[in-house]
Amino acid sequence: MVRKFVFGEPIETEAVIDQVGIEVLQGGTSFPDQWQVVQAETLTLTHCMEPGERIYGLGESMRGINKRGFRYVSWNTDDPIHTEDKESLYGAHNFLVIQGGVCQGLFVDDPGRVSFDIGFTVLDRLEIRVDSGSANLYVIDGEDILDIVRQFRRIIGRSYIPPLWGMGYGQSRWSYPDVESVREVLRRHRENHIPLDAIYLDIDYMEKYMDFTVSEERFPEFAVIVSEMKQQGIHLVPIIDAGVKMEPGYRTYEEGLEKGYFCRKEDGNELVVGVWPGKTHFPDVLNPEAREWFGNSYQPLMDQGIDGFWNDMNEPAIFYTEDRLLDTFEQLKSFRNTDMDLQEFWRFVGLGPALQNNQEDYTLFYHNMNGTLVRHDRVHNLYGYNMTRAAGEAFDRLRPDQRILLFSRSSYVGMHRYGGIWTGDNQSWWSHILLSMHQMVGLNMCGFLFVGSDIGGFGSNASEDLVIRFTEWGLFTPLMRNHSSLGTVCQEGYAFSRPEIFAHIIGLRYLFLPYLYSEFMRAALQGEMYFYPLAFLYPGDEMACRVEDQLFVGQSMMIAPVYEQNARGRYVYLPEPMKLYRFRSVHEYDTEMLSQGHHYVNCELEEVLVFVRQNGMIPCTWFAEGEQPVNIDSVLKADSLCLMCYASEPIRYTLYRDNGLDKDYTAPGKWVSIETDEDGQVHVSDGNTKILHLI
Ligand code: GLC
Predict the structure, then answer these.
(1) Which neighbouring-strand residues pair with 422?
(2) Terminus of the chain with fewer CB atoms < 10 Å: N or C?
(3) Chain segment 236-261, per-residue pLDDT in tens
(4) Is the link from the previous residue into 134 a cis peptide, with omega within 30 of 0?
């Protein structure tokens, strides 16, 4: 049951799109007893947490799967240093579920600043503060957490579904700045038998960092390059940034200016913001007309054969505003004395950092929302969402039958209908493997299914073993992309001493893909999770509820990635007996039956652990001896499957099979039923699928 409580004058975010069956009540009236609500200038909700209550959700945020013990602030922020004290990251996902004493979901739908103090200041107190004082609060009651998630997902609409090749392995780096470097990335992957489906183009493919342009010098005849890559099974995926360069003669700039589609300040002038290209304007993607215009700007690249994009810097990130920079220059004039006192010194060194993402700057510009001017800070968290929506809506108009790859850095609930996300600028730190696992759960709960983190870590130098272990986790995330920053060591699989390990473990992605894709489609089409924490599947098992470093991928497969350096194994907790597969490549593995309880399992650097639940089935691509996956075609063309099974009785699995490109997701014939009988024989409902092996 979903109830909506309206407090003050909420801004319509279009996060919730299906209002059918939702009871609408004025704020305050009969709000559930477990909450104390105070509405003054801000709106504050307080709940006293029982010792056994766990709080799940909040999408992309720091800390654990159970969010207790920290303060989180929904305020989309470009911050590349994800240390455990960070309250805000790139997304705002104000959905949480209390599990334990009560089982209840709450979605705080407000696009301004919202904070969640979950037992940080006071151990047992959960306090939510909505700065604007207005919000639509959706309270969801249900049987259990999965039921609540399903209800939430129904009202926010179906998740974005990428083309299947977008679930293949992608290699990225800031940057592969010219066609030669792109060719080299492809050549070296193929030479080393590392499968690959996509190469990502970071900002240097553009002319002077101008969106929707391509450098003539570095990528001459871009359409020919795109097609040359496609012929070799590679999709090029360019980045698009939020800021549009101020450059006379540049089409997007001239058009935006002429039509009045950029964000303006109170004095009516366009806000001038410094980002990668130097001075830029922000397209006002909250204005429906401007959104349509910005979306259409993707077309020239699509006409050149591009079928995937990543949207960046859309919190929106501000390196500086022109006004503040001028003011800073003025202030600098007052510093002449080299014998500064401490106060003066701090003021001096603070001038530079104060330019970047300055909170005051977010109050200086406006959006034209259907004729009403709204100050940016009131709707801050909607910017990345609407930039990606601009693209997603344009793709639906321009290529109605084709799936286009799309993901974004910044987001709000609702954006999950238009694209996926990556978790921004993580670091080559061991702790960020575990953080990524935690983030996936919160994200899945609010509909973000096509998600992943920069494999190997974006910032800092990565060691070979870190990238291997990161890849062993990343091979289960729907978006599987290795990406790293300018100035760090190269972290492509072939850049290390043992490229064959990368070839083997990335190959496993293509082995598991029939299952991973089916679980993704089930999650998208039925409002399910793709990654489940053990607590969601075994809520009655106290020990399972404490585990935060193992996840279920779909309902049959449990994973337990190694995320500590020099570990050659790890402890796992099994809530029920399971069959362990220890994979070394698509052809090499051993198995072990494990009982319910705690175990220490060995896992060498080049090994990947996969646990199959009792009566679970995991359909995989069948690779004949000597055959290696190359790209997604190796999966699509295979008519044979092998089944990882742990069956004590006849079992059944429904597999999703299609060409990975069409959008008629629910057309008949896409779900194939695979059953085993009493004698261990396998039966398939679709005559084209051969089963070769039960493994
Ligand atoms: C941002 C993005 C990162 C990208 C860089 C340069 O930091 O998060 O992925 O490589 O900008 O475009």
Answers:
(1) 452
(2) N
(3) 999 999 999 999 999 999 999 999 99
(4) no
